[in-house]
Amino acid sequence: MFLNLLLLPEIILVLGSFFVLLLGVFKENSYKILNFLVLTTLFIIIFFLIFQFNEKKNFFSNFYNIDPFVNFIKLLILGSIIFTLLLTKQYLEKQNLLKFEFLVIILLSAVGMFVMVSASNLIVFYLGLELQSLCLYIMASINTKSSKSSESGLKYFVLGSLASGLLLYGCSIVYGFSGTLNYTEISKFSSTETISLKFGLVFILCGIAFKVSAVPFHMWTPDVYEGSPTAVTTFFAIAPKVAAIAAFVKFLNVPYINYFNEWKLLLLILSCASMFLGAVAAIAQSNLKRLMAYSSISHVGFILAGVTISTPEALNAVVIYTFIYVIMNIGIFSCILALKRKENYYENIFDLSGISKNHPLLALSFTILLFSLAGIPPLAGFFAKLYIFLAIIEQKMFYFAAFGLICAVIAGFYYLRLIKIIYFDPPKENFDQINSKGLKISIILSTLIVLLFFIQPSFLTEITSDVIKYIK
Amino acid sequence: MSWPILSFLIFFPLLGALLIFILKGSEDQIKKNSIYITLGTTVINFIVSLDLWYEFDPKATGYQFIEYKKWIVNFISYKLGIDGISLFLVLLTTFITPLCVLSVINSVKFRVKEFFIALLLMETFMIGVFCSLDIFLFFLFFEGGLIPMFLIIGIWGGERRVYSALKFFLYTFLGSIFLLIAIITIYLQLNTTDVEQLSKINIPVNLQYYLWWGFFISLAVKLPMWPFHTWLPDAHVEAPTAGSVILAAILLKIAGYAFIRFSIGLFPNASLFFSNIVFILSLVAIIYTSLVALMQSDMKKLIAYSSVAHMGYVTIGIFSFSKQGIDGAIFQMISHGFISSALFLCVGVLYDRVHSRLIDTYKGIVNVMPIFSLVFLTSSLANVGLPGTSGFIGELLTLIGVFKMNYVVAIIAGLGVILSAAYMLWLCKRLIFGNFSVQGLNKNEKLLDMNLIEKVMIFSLIILIILVGVYPNIILETISTSVDQTLSSINKQISIKKAFIY
Fold first, then answer.
1. Which of residues 389-418 of A touch B (CB under 8 A)?
2. Cα B502 from Cα B500, distance rounded (Å)
3. Is the N-terminal amide bond of B148 cis, ω within 30° of 0?
4. Per the CB < 8 Å rule, is B187 touching A390?
5. Which residues of A touch B154 (CB under 8 A)?
6. Number of independent structural domains in chain A
7. Interacting residues of A240 by C-beta distance below 8 A, sequence separation 6+
8. Which site among A283, A400, A405, A447 would you substitute to test the B interface, given the most B Cβ atoms closer than 10 Å to its Cβ?
9. What residue of B is the nearest CA neighbor of A422?
10. A381 to each of A142, A182, A452, how far by Cα in Å?
């Protein structure tokens, strides 16, 4: 059957985005209705995805595949999009950014991410990646009145195109030497047979490493995070990262599975460099968004540490880490979005000074989330790191583990510095009370998940350990 | 055993903290109510822990009150249990915490609600540390305790509180990395993190060496041992009185406890092999920090350095592998818990009145505060190790224990006793005797002697110091079986050619 019901999520997304576009063009000031519409669409898709969670199928002569792993990642992406929409609505409203285009672009980028993780062919993968990236470029520069936003969009576009170019070049090399673009076909070549495939591997790795912002392809991250409107940064920090990491894992473990010994070292370097730079460079930052950019780089380093090992335990840890990373980032960015005083939003770390005095609950959530990011037990962030290091030490890579943990301690310093500013410094002017429901919900929910994760971690680990069996 | 008494002890303070968290009302009301709730919670916890002592069977071997629950499948189990060694540390925790609450009633002026929440969280984590029989669970409680302590030092501390809080946090956090790696290695190599099962396994000697170092680095920071001790004086000086008391009385004991339970209990070969390193570091700690203590101008710093020196006796005693040594180490930990709390509370009494910790500020206190001088002198003498006080028994036993193992160590450690007498008595001379004068005090102001609450706090400690010092069997009889058992399981793996006196 050409059109399968299993593809409904993608189809609904595409149709939904067109519908929103049409409605938006013909009806003015329709953001509220459209927002509601988009949320309903997303919930319907979530319903479909849960319904078909355990299906495993290839489509279009093995161009596109669906399995529990892909479905899990898609759910994660949808979840982060829903939270982005919930918690950024007030911000967009205050900043006069309530444009229906924002919704259209978010939906389209979701399509791109879906294609990206589902692809089992390099061309399809590239198409998904490009669709996603183009949407992100536009989103970064959505605040046309701010020169910083336009600048970050342009910067992202130029650097992103370069990375896409490298990736495409890699794909063409792979095609040139193996005569195929299909994941399973490529995987039939062993590393001794076609050394030239390694060439392609390196270029493609550069492209994907750019998307997950691993060092040394991270240069865009701080600038884009800082320049974009906070609502967009929130989105950048979660959904595209999840998709890129999933695609990364899939790319290395399906077509290039025989090249494990070759890419292991590359990944090791990427991971160590990201952990280290993410930890060290963040110390000097005074902009919260910039700091979170470096923080996300260091977290990506930890995730890549798991990808480096790529044993089932490690992949399990990668998925768990990604999940917890998303939750923590939703929480932190909702806290950042809550720093509002009379229509103005604040994003300098010193604006946090002493907020514990006047906003005890916000400060408490912020602190819990920061401790979790630093990886202090018994919070969720600790378990995320624990599973990664469990996998690393299982491979007897003690130095790698020690290095990673030392980076975690260095990173701990700047999270602590934030907590110091929140709790120990003298209070400044009050911020407005949080009056957006979406913001409240996401702060409370993410804090509770992070705080209470330890009670029953097997709830998540059982799903993930089941899901990762389908990667290879 | 009918009800999960250990879980109750651990999570009851958490319940109190939640209750305080949801308190509403005017600021005064909140302050009052949170004091009542905290006091109630901690006192109930103390009473329950007394029941624990009552139900505890000192003759039984192995762990008692065991609670077991699967938590993370095949990985971490929620396993609690105590033996004689941990029983008294739990009792110490539940006893000291209400005293801390009393000590802050007047000194903590702002964010009272949050302070008590942090204090109760602290109690939860500390009791958890002493009760957990799964190394991972131990680690979770061990690390989790950092958060409330960091906040206690950082929010309610003195002038350089931020620096001290960060230093405290980062030192311990860095140390615990190695502990985490060691624990993960144990789990992967031996497939269990259950202490009871691990003590039955003979861990390969090579592996023991690595694991021992992983544990040692982390615990040496926590104890603290020279040269990792520099966070302690800073943390002590800047922490509020209650924070200092908790730090000195309980947090430092975690490492000593873990040395007995894990280092020598699980890795006896490695412990024996590296015992000389521990001896040397401990001796340096005893002599060097005692000398440093002599030159301090800040009372809290002086007591902090003296704590480092006294913890040196604990490690010496533990690594002497003799019954007297380990008995003495446990005794010393408990007695130091009483003595250092009493000393810190005394300093707190002065600080609340004059707001100075400097020794030079005070002269001839005895003329206006006779009762205070009495308790201060008593606890100082106990700190020196005067016979009749608990400090004497602890030091005597550790020295006997280590004398059998290595008499040179014992002799040098003995010198430390003289040095401790030097700095403590000199402190007393400068502070208490002579003509009365206090800098920064107006002529009209009077220096009041201790009020009722302060008397209750400090006298209860003094009574215990003397009681335990005169009749040490209260503790020694109860821990005897557990120590014997630890030693016999060690002796299965290594033969120590030393005779035991008992």
1. 389-390, 393-394, 398, 401-402, 405-406, 408-409, 412-413, 416-417
2. 6
3. no
4. yes
5. 419-420, 423-424
6. 1
7. A109, A113, A132, A136, A211
8. A405
9. B155
10. 32, 37, 11
Would you give per-residue pLDDT tens digits along chain A (472 residues)?
Answer: 456 778 888 999 999 999 999 998 888 778 888 888 899 999 999 998 998 888 888 888 888 889 999 999 999 999 999 999 988 888 888 888 888 888 999 999 999 999 999 999 999 999 999 999 999 999 998 888 889 899 999 999 999 999 999 999 999 998 988 888 898 888 888 767 667 888 888 999 999 999 999 988 998 999 999 999 999 999 999 999 999 999 999 999 988 888 888 889 999 999 999 999 999 999 888 999 999 999 999 999 999 999 998 899 999 999 999 999 999 999 999 999 988 888 888 888 888 888 888 888 899 999 999 999 998 888 999 999 999 999 998 888 889 998 999 999 999 888 988 988 888 888 888 888 888 888 899 999 999 999 999 888 888 888 888 888 888 7
Q: What is the chain B residue with the closest CA to A354?
A: B155
Q: Which of A425, A458, A461 is the best substitution to test chain B (most B C-beta atoms within 10 A)?
A: A458
The alpha carbon of residue B169 is apart from the nearest alpha carbon of chain A, in Å, by: 9
Q: How far is CA A365 from CA A369, A439, B19, in A?
A: 6, 12, 18
Interchain pair A406, B151: CB under 8 A: no
Q: Tell me the domain boundaries of chain B.
A: 291-502
Task: Tell me the shortest Cα–Cα distance from A393 to chain B, in angstroms.
Answer: 7
Which string of DSSP letters, residue by residue, matches B150-214?
HHHHHHH--TTHHHHHHHHHHHHHHHHHHHHHHHHHHHHHHS--BHHHHHHS---HHHHHHHHHH
Record the tokens describing residue B22, joined without a space. 């949801």
3-state helix, strand, coil in chain A (%, to 5): 75, 5, 20
Cα B165 to Cα A416, B235, B307, distances in angstroms: 10, 7, 19
- Is B144 close to A408, i.e. CB distance below 8 A? no
Contact yes or no for A461 and B146 at CB 8 A = no
- The CA distance from B443 to B447, in Å, is 10
- What range does the domain containing A224 cover? 5-470
In angstroms, the first-to-last Cα distance of chain B is: 32
Q: Is the distance from CB of A239 to CB of A84 less than 8 angstroms?
A: yes
Q: Check: CB of residue A262 under 8 Å from CB of residue A200.
A: no
Task: Verify whether the Cβ–Cβ distance A413 to B166 is below 8 Å.
Answer: yes
B227 preceded by a cis bond (ω within 30 of 0): yes
* 8 Å CB contact between B203 and B210: no
Q: What are phi and psi of A287, to 5 degrees?
A: -95, 130
Contact indicator for A373, A313 with CB cutoff of 8 Å: no
Look at A406 and B146 and tell me if their CB atoms are within 8 Å: no
Phi, psi of A245 (to 5 degrees): -65, -40
CA distance, residue A454 to nearest chain B CA (Å): 9
Global pTM value: 0.91
